[in-house]
# Entry
Amino acid sequence: MKRSDRSQILFRYGRRWKTLTRAGYVPTAASLLLAQPFLLLLWLAMGAFPAWAQTGASLSGVVTDQTGAALPDVAVTIRNVDTGATRTIATDGGGHYQASGLPPGRFEIRAAKQGFADETRTGISLAVGQDATVDIKMQRSTPDACASGHEFATTDCALTWHGITLYGAYDVGVGWVSHGLPENGYNYEGESLVNRNGYQHRFLIAPNNLSQTGLGIRGKEEFLPGWSVVFNASTGINPQSGLLANASATDTINNGLPRSSYSEAIDGARAGQPFNDEFYGGISSAHFGTLTFGRQRALGTEAMLVYDPAGGGYAFSYIGYNGTMAGGGDTEDSRWDDALKYRLSYGPVHFGAMYKFADGSGGCYSASANWTAATCTPEAPHNTAYGFDLGGNYGKFSADVVYQHYNQAISVLNPLLGPQSPTQSYQSTLNSINTNPITGANLIGTANTVYGIVTDNSAIMVAAKYTWDPFKLFAGYEYIRQANPSNPLGVGALDQGGYIMSGVEDHNLDSPKHVQIWWTGLKYAFDSKTDITLSWYHQLQNDFRVPTTCSPEAGFRSSCAGTLNEWSLYTDHHFTKRFDAFAGIAYSYVSGGLAIAIPHGPGVPYKYDNNLAPTVGGRFTF
# Structure
């Protein structure tokens, strides 16, 4: 046979028919006859395949990180709960995965990727022919342990040994304020926010601008499959002095001084405790959540760190600098002692609950104007608290709703009056609920003691963020209601850090106080190493004075309606995974009742009702 004699075999490719030829072969009648049964079986199989495919179900979805960015090369394992059969596939460059031809039944999905915590989705039921979509959001896990000093300096590896990790940060800068005060070694928040006693422009060392300088140690050790022991102990340190962060000490060192001699005085949850951030331990389950007990961040604080465009940085965030929002009405309650916290994630939804047990001392209380230490009644503390958090994410959108209630919340407002200023009318001289002066038999010494207002607080917050590359959009709102406490505290009650209260006011509010806080912001990723953040914060309080006599003519008091606003803009550039530098500016101002410095008698206004605060600095984290 000549090479030009060729048989032709036709097959379909796409939508076109092509011809394949093979030289040296001629089909015979016998071969065609033998091929008929094979062709019949092939035809039956091809006819049956569409019917089988229609009975198979499919699962698909997108895997993203906590910012909404797609994650490629994620190992997605789909397990049939009924049969135990598994199938593992990898996500593509867009984070997509898809598995088809699945039988009807119950399934669970597990996503795993190095550098991220495993995520599991359960409770998935597939019917015949169903196409289900299950998106997964993964959270970054603790980085791999450092193997060398060079790796520590150039990557974000963790200082981990046998499951225990040492971590921390050092954040310091230089700032200028238009209306500030002399600094002291205990103040950990700087002076970016307008201050009631600020009066002079000055340069200063700016501490903890984006992060609190400090050290911590945490651990997670599995003791049974899926069950682990967890713990965390962390504290804040002032980078300019090396002292423990201590808001109460900023007040006590000013006790007895005239107002013109004050240094910066603040209020806060960090009061010189050895572990002034968190100190807790507990148990964590991959399926049943995490239960911990000890000193822990409030649910509002955790939500603030997620939904604040400035991440709670003191230099550029009002809700970070002042913990009123995070603490549900009181900055001292941004962390709860002796608290039980439960956290659970199920698919894209997460839930949290928290309860604080009463602790400390309630002091000594009497309604009589002539009480003495011998006639007053010791008070038991009733400073219990509880809160709930419900949130979730959908694609690049996430949101949370947080409710918190705190009994006997203490707000330390200003340093105590002392012997150097006995006649200053604008300073509080009261040390009991019946406004007795701190003189004579009722006196508790002002040395190393604090003065506070006590309220019962309730707050509800709604916050959300959305990633729209290269932008991240943030917004939030909180409503706070404060009322005089159902159970009073007495003189000698204990405040944060074991400080004694020599002045207590349980009836400071004429009527319930209502506070509203709004915030919004935008973070722009200029490139992979540089972010630019713009934020706005607004606080509004009602007129809770009775009778209502608030006007420029009648004079304002702190119980009058008022507002606070802050704008901030800053840029942050990461030179390495650990070191970044930042520069920005914040401007804040107050009006009405929020511009009154002292909550007694005729209103004494802030020395200046605004503050401009540019800051530059650097941060090192590990």
Summary: Confidence is low (pLDDT under 50) at residues 1-27, 29-35, 37-54, 418-442. Residues 223 and 229 are 7 Å apart (CA to CA). The first strand starts at residue 6 and ends at 13. DSSP finds five helices and 33 strands in the chain.
